Amino acid sequence: MPRRSSPAPAGRDPFGELGAKRALPPGLLRRFRDRVLVMTTDRCFKRCPHCTRAFILGRAPVVDTPERLAACVDFVRRHREVRDVLLSGGDVLTLSDREVMRFVNAFAALDQVEVVRICTRAPVDAPERVTARLARLLGRSKKVWANIHVNTAAEARKAAPAAARLVEAGVPVSSQTVLLKGVNDTPAKMLALLRALSAARIRPYYVFQCDPVAGVSERFAVPLARAREIEEWCAARIGGLALPRFVADVPGASRKVPIERL
Ligand code: SF4
Protein backbone atom coordinates (compact mmCIF):
# COMPACT_ATOMS: atom_id res chain seq x y z
CA MET A 1 0.00 0.00 0.00
CA PRO A 2 1.13 3.51 -1.03
CA ARG A 3 2.60 6.92 0.15
CA ARG A 4 4.12 10.69 -0.08
CA SER A 5 5.28 13.86 -2.05
CA SER A 6 8.85 15.29 -1.81
CA PRO A 7 11.86 15.87 -1.50
CA ALA A 8 13.22 12.89 -3.47
CA PRO A 9 12.79 13.05 -7.25
CA ALA A 10 10.05 10.84 -8.62
CA GLY A 11 11.11 7.40 -9.82
CA ARG A 12 9.15 4.20 -10.33
CA ASP A 13 10.76 2.21 -7.53
CA PRO A 14 11.89 4.81 -4.95
CA PHE A 15 12.33 2.25 -2.17
CA GLY A 16 14.38 -0.17 -4.25
CA GLU A 17 11.88 -2.99 -3.91
CA LEU A 18 12.87 -4.44 -7.25
CA GLY A 19 16.57 -4.38 -6.49
CA ALA A 20 18.29 -7.67 -5.71
CA LYS A 21 17.18 -8.18 -2.15
CA ARG A 22 20.55 -9.39 -1.00
CA ALA A 23 20.10 -11.80 1.92
CA LEU A 24 16.31 -11.66 1.88
CA PRO A 25 14.18 -14.56 0.66
CA PRO A 26 12.07 -13.85 -2.47
CA GLY A 27 8.91 -11.94 -1.57
CA LEU A 28 10.20 -10.56 1.74
CA LEU A 29 10.89 -6.83 2.12
CA ARG A 30 12.60 -5.26 5.08
CA ARG A 31 13.16 -1.54 5.59
CA PHE A 32 12.89 -1.30 9.37
CA ARG A 33 14.58 -3.35 12.07
CA ASP A 34 11.51 -4.78 13.81
CA ARG A 35 9.23 -5.29 10.78
CA VAL A 36 9.09 -7.25 7.56
CA LEU A 37 6.61 -7.08 4.71
CA VAL A 38 5.54 -10.25 2.95
CA MET A 39 4.44 -9.93 -0.68
CA THR A 40 1.63 -12.47 -0.50
CA THR A 41 0.21 -11.73 -3.95
CA ASP A 42 0.35 -9.13 -6.71
CA ARG A 43 -3.44 -8.98 -7.05
CA CYS A 44 -5.78 -6.30 -5.66
CA PHE A 45 -9.57 -6.04 -5.70
CA LYS A 46 -9.39 -2.88 -7.82
CA ARG A 47 -6.55 -0.88 -9.27
CA CYS A 48 -6.40 2.44 -7.40
CA PRO A 49 -5.66 5.40 -9.72
CA HIS A 50 -3.14 6.72 -7.18
CA CYS A 51 -1.35 3.38 -6.73
CA THR A 52 2.36 3.97 -6.31
CA ARG A 53 3.11 0.25 -6.49
CA ALA A 54 1.66 -0.35 -9.94
CA PHE A 55 5.14 -0.56 -11.45
CA ILE A 56 6.23 -3.03 -8.75
CA LEU A 57 3.24 -5.34 -8.90
CA GLY A 58 3.83 -8.16 -11.33
CA ARG A 59 7.59 -7.52 -11.29
CA ALA A 60 8.50 -8.17 -7.66
CA PRO A 61 8.49 -11.82 -6.53
CA VAL A 62 5.57 -12.99 -4.39
CA VAL A 63 5.44 -15.75 -1.79
CA ASP A 64 3.40 -18.17 -3.86
CA THR A 65 4.93 -21.54 -2.96
CA PRO A 66 5.30 -23.48 0.31
CA GLU A 67 9.08 -23.30 -0.15
CA ARG A 68 9.04 -19.50 -0.37
CA LEU A 69 6.81 -19.24 2.69
CA ALA A 70 9.10 -21.58 4.62
CA ALA A 71 12.10 -19.45 3.64
CA CYS A 72 10.37 -16.28 4.89
CA VAL A 73 9.36 -17.90 8.16
CA ASP A 74 12.87 -19.20 8.64
CA PHE A 75 14.28 -15.71 8.04
CA VAL A 76 11.99 -14.21 10.69
CA ARG A 77 12.80 -17.02 13.12
CA ARG A 78 16.51 -16.31 12.74
CA HIS A 79 16.01 -12.54 13.18
CA ARG A 80 14.46 -12.34 16.60
CA GLU A 81 14.27 -8.56 16.50
CA VAL A 82 11.44 -8.89 13.95
CA ARG A 83 8.19 -8.66 15.91
CA ASP A 84 5.75 -7.30 13.35
CA VAL A 85 4.92 -9.08 10.08
CA LEU A 86 2.89 -7.25 7.43
CA LEU A 87 0.94 -9.43 5.03
CA SER A 88 0.65 -7.21 1.98
CA GLY A 89 1.20 -7.21 -1.76
CA GLY A 90 -1.18 -6.55 -3.60
CA ASP A 91 -3.96 -7.36 -1.18
CA VAL A 92 -3.67 -10.49 0.95
CA LEU A 93 -7.45 -10.86 1.19
CA THR A 94 -7.67 -11.62 -2.54
CA LEU A 95 -6.38 -15.04 -1.43
CA SER A 96 -8.68 -17.76 -0.08
CA ASP A 97 -9.34 -18.11 3.66
CA ARG A 98 -7.10 -21.16 3.65
CA GLU A 99 -4.21 -19.32 2.03
CA VAL A 100 -4.63 -16.28 4.28
CA MET A 101 -4.60 -18.45 7.39
CA ARG A 102 -1.57 -20.35 6.12
CA PHE A 103 0.35 -17.06 6.17
CA VAL A 104 -1.14 -15.93 9.48
CA ASN A 105 -0.53 -19.20 11.31
CA ALA A 106 2.99 -19.63 9.95
CA PHE A 107 4.15 -16.30 11.37
CA ALA A 108 1.91 -16.18 14.46
CA ALA A 109 3.43 -19.49 15.58
CA LEU A 110 6.78 -17.77 16.13
CA ASP A 111 7.12 -16.72 19.80
CA GLN A 112 8.84 -13.45 19.02
CA VAL A 113 6.15 -12.27 16.57
CA GLU A 114 3.69 -10.06 18.42
CA VAL A 115 1.70 -8.65 15.51
CA VAL A 116 0.63 -10.05 12.14
CA ARG A 117 -0.86 -7.22 10.10
CA ILE A 118 -3.43 -7.74 7.40
CA CYS A 119 -2.96 -4.80 5.01
CA THR A 120 -6.07 -4.58 2.88
CA ARG A 121 -8.65 -2.56 1.03
CA ALA A 122 -11.19 -5.38 1.10
CA PRO A 123 -13.54 -3.61 3.56
CA VAL A 124 -13.80 -0.78 0.99
CA ASP A 125 -13.53 -2.56 -2.36
CA ALA A 126 -14.98 -6.00 -1.54
CA PRO A 127 -16.64 -5.83 1.90
CA GLU A 128 -18.36 -9.19 1.38
CA ARG A 129 -14.89 -10.78 1.37
CA VAL A 130 -14.61 -10.06 5.11
CA THR A 131 -17.05 -12.73 6.17
CA ALA A 132 -17.90 -13.50 9.79
CA ARG A 133 -16.05 -16.78 9.30
CA LEU A 134 -12.86 -15.08 8.12
CA ALA A 135 -13.10 -12.54 10.95
CA ARG A 136 -13.41 -15.40 13.48
CA LEU A 137 -10.41 -17.20 12.01
CA LEU A 138 -8.30 -14.04 12.17
CA GLY A 139 -9.48 -13.23 15.70
CA ARG A 140 -8.60 -16.69 16.97
CA SER A 141 -4.91 -16.15 16.25
CA LYS A 142 -4.79 -13.38 18.91
CA LYS A 143 -1.97 -11.72 16.96
CA VAL A 144 -3.77 -10.30 13.95
CA TRP A 145 -4.38 -6.60 13.42
CA ALA A 146 -6.14 -5.28 10.33
CA ASN A 147 -4.93 -2.11 8.64
CA ILE A 148 -7.34 -0.75 6.07
CA HIS A 149 -6.44 1.67 3.28
CA VAL A 150 -9.22 4.30 3.39
CA ASN A 151 -9.08 7.72 1.72
CA THR A 152 -12.51 9.35 2.06
CA ALA A 153 -15.41 9.53 4.48
CA ALA A 154 -17.58 7.68 1.97
CA GLU A 155 -15.04 4.85 1.87
CA ALA A 156 -14.94 4.75 5.68
CA ARG A 157 -18.72 4.38 5.82
CA LYS A 158 -18.56 1.63 3.20
CA ALA A 159 -15.90 -0.17 5.23
CA ALA A 160 -17.85 0.08 8.49
CA PRO A 161 -19.75 -3.26 8.35
CA ALA A 162 -16.62 -5.29 7.53
CA ALA A 163 -14.66 -3.40 10.19
CA ALA A 164 -17.40 -4.21 12.70
CA ARG A 165 -17.09 -7.92 11.92
CA LEU A 166 -13.37 -7.76 12.54
CA VAL A 167 -13.65 -5.72 15.75
CA GLU A 168 -16.35 -8.01 17.12
CA ALA A 169 -14.13 -11.01 16.40
CA GLY A 170 -11.32 -9.46 18.44
CA VAL A 171 -9.23 -8.02 15.60
CA PRO A 172 -8.03 -4.44 16.24
CA VAL A 173 -8.65 -2.30 13.17
CA SER A 174 -6.72 0.79 12.10
CA SER A 175 -6.50 2.82 8.91
CA GLN A 176 -3.94 4.32 6.64
CA THR A 177 -4.77 7.09 4.23
CA VAL A 178 -2.90 8.71 1.38
CA LEU A 179 -3.23 12.46 1.15
CA LEU A 180 -4.39 12.95 -2.43
CA LYS A 181 -4.90 16.09 -4.46
CA GLY A 182 -8.53 16.50 -5.42
CA VAL A 183 -9.64 13.62 -3.17
CA ASN A 184 -9.05 14.46 0.49
CA ASP A 185 -6.81 17.52 0.47
CA THR A 186 -9.11 19.94 2.26
CA PRO A 187 -9.36 20.26 6.05
CA ALA A 188 -13.10 19.60 5.95
CA LYS A 189 -12.76 16.42 3.89
CA MET A 190 -10.01 15.10 6.13
CA LEU A 191 -11.96 15.85 9.30
CA ALA A 192 -15.03 14.12 7.84
CA LEU A 193 -12.87 11.08 7.09
CA LEU A 194 -11.44 10.95 10.61
CA ARG A 195 -14.89 11.23 12.15
CA ALA A 196 -16.28 8.51 9.89
CA LEU A 197 -13.38 6.22 10.79
CA SER A 198 -13.93 6.77 14.51
CA ALA A 199 -17.63 6.10 14.15
CA ALA A 200 -16.75 2.80 12.45
CA ARG A 201 -14.34 1.87 15.27
CA ILE A 202 -11.41 2.15 12.88
CA ARG A 203 -8.49 3.84 14.61
CA PRO A 204 -6.91 6.45 12.28
CA TYR A 205 -3.24 5.47 12.19
CA TYR A 206 -1.31 7.18 9.40
CA VAL A 207 -1.93 9.81 6.74
CA PHE A 208 0.86 9.44 4.19
CA GLN A 209 2.25 11.90 1.74
CA CYS A 210 1.98 10.37 -1.72
CA ASP A 211 5.16 8.45 -2.60
CA PRO A 212 7.49 10.10 -5.14
CA VAL A 213 6.54 7.77 -7.96
CA ALA A 214 6.65 8.99 -11.54
CA GLY A 215 3.25 9.28 -13.14
CA VAL A 216 1.46 9.35 -9.77
CA SER A 217 2.99 12.07 -7.63
CA GLU A 218 2.64 14.68 -10.41
CA ARG A 219 -1.10 14.06 -10.40
CA PHE A 220 -1.88 13.41 -6.74
CA ALA A 221 0.86 14.80 -4.46
CA VAL A 222 -0.19 17.48 -2.00
CA PRO A 223 2.41 20.13 -1.03
CA LEU A 224 3.86 19.74 2.46
CA ALA A 225 2.63 23.18 3.51
CA ARG A 226 -0.91 22.17 2.65
CA ALA A 227 -0.52 18.86 4.49
CA ARG A 228 0.67 20.67 7.63
CA GLU A 229 -2.26 23.07 7.40
CA ILE A 230 -4.72 20.17 7.17
CA GLU A 231 -3.09 18.38 10.10
CA GLU A 232 -3.16 21.50 12.29
CA TRP A 233 -6.76 22.25 11.42
CA CYS A 234 -7.87 18.70 12.28
CA ALA A 235 -5.78 18.59 15.48
CA ALA A 236 -7.64 21.64 16.73
CA ARG A 237 -11.01 19.96 16.16
CA ILE A 238 -10.71 16.29 17.04
CA GLY A 239 -9.37 14.29 20.00
CA GLY A 240 -6.07 12.45 19.92
CA LEU A 241 -7.76 9.05 19.66
CA ALA A 242 -9.06 10.01 16.22
CA LEU A 243 -6.01 11.94 15.07
CA PRO A 244 -3.59 9.99 12.85
CA ARG A 245 0.06 10.77 12.38
CA PHE A 246 0.79 12.69 9.20
CA VAL A 247 3.98 11.16 7.83
CA ALA A 248 6.08 10.53 4.75
CA ASP A 249 7.94 7.43 3.72
CA VAL A 250 11.42 8.71 2.95
CA PRO A 251 13.88 6.44 1.12
CA GLY A 252 16.70 5.54 3.50
CA ALA A 253 14.98 6.84 6.65
CA SER A 254 14.92 4.59 9.70
CA ARG A 255 11.28 5.42 10.44
CA LYS A 256 8.20 7.02 8.98
CA VAL A 257 9.02 10.72 9.09
CA PRO A 258 6.45 13.12 10.63
CA ILE A 259 5.72 15.86 8.11
CA GLU A 260 6.67 18.60 10.57
CA ARG A 261 10.26 17.30 10.36
CA LEU A 262 10.46 17.58 6.58
S1 SF4 B 1 -4.81 -1.59 -2.92
FE1 SF4 B 1 -2.76 -0.69 -2.64
S2 SF4 B 1 -1.42 -1.95 -3.95
FE2 SF4 B 1 -3.54 -2.36 -4.60
S3 SF4 B 1 -3.94 -0.94 -6.31
FE3 SF4 B 1 -4.65 0.07 -4.41
S4 SF4 B 1 -2.89 1.28 -3.72
FE4 SF4 B 1 -2.11 -0.21 -5.20
In short:
With 262 residues, the chain is an alpha/beta fold.
Task: Give a written overview of the molecule.
By secondary structure, the chain is of the alpha/beta class. The protein has a single domain (28-261), classed as TIM Barrel (Alpha-Beta Barrel), CATH 3.20.20.70. The chain is 32% helix and 17% strand. The protein is built from 8 helices and 9 strands. The protein has helices at 66-78, 97-108, 122-125, 132-140, 153-168, 187-199, 217-220, 224-235; strands spanning 28-29, 35-39, 84-88, 115-120, 144-149, 173-179, 203-209, 245-248, 257-258. A 9-stranded mixed β-sheet has the order 1-2-3-4-5-6-7-8-9. Helix 4 packs across helix 5 (153-168), helix 5 runs parallel beside helix 6 (187-199) and helix 6 packs across helix 8. It is globular and about 50 Å long. The two termini are 21 Å apart. Iron/sulfur cluster binds at residues 1-2, 44, 47-48, 51, 53, 91, 121, 149.
